[in-house]
Backbone:
């Protein structure tokens, strides 16, 4: 895993518009998904709390050069169908992914890779 470091602020002027668009779309997707599950399970959500949580997660992730995070309809649906009701279910699945990436991932290193020029017409 990469060591935490501050992002490159010299690129900010080049990516600020794209970053704002991604942030707005990610928040809209997350909030709409939260509203779907809130209606289904009869609980209330606070849009401000969702924004703070998503923003905090993305600021922390930026220290590790991660992609922006957002909600995932497929992953959330699978988690809900398997009985996951709290954030603990997400932590458990994330822990499994981390173990796989750190310990079992290197075993997949020697699998063949598709060459980018295969299938392209010359």
Residues:
């Amino acid at each position: 895993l990469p060591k935490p470091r501050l992002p490159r602020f010299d690129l900010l002027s080049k990516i600020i518009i794209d970053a704002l668009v991604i942030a707005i779309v990610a928040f809209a997707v997350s909030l709409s998904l939260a509203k779907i599950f809130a209606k289904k399970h009869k609980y209330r959500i606070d849009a401000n709390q969702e924004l703070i949580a998503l923003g905090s997660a993305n600021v922390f992730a930026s220290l590790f050069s991660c992609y922006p995070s957002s909600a995932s309809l497929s992953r959330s649906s699978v988690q809900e169908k398997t009985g996951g009701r709290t954030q603990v279910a997400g932590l458990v699945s994330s822990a499994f992914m981390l173990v796989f990436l750190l310990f079992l991932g290197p075993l997949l290193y020697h699998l063949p890779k598709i060459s980018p020029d295969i299938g392209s017409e010359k």
Remarks:
- The chain has two domains: 1-71, 74-110.
- The mean pLDDT is 86.
- The helical segments are 12-41, 47-62, 73-81, 87-104.
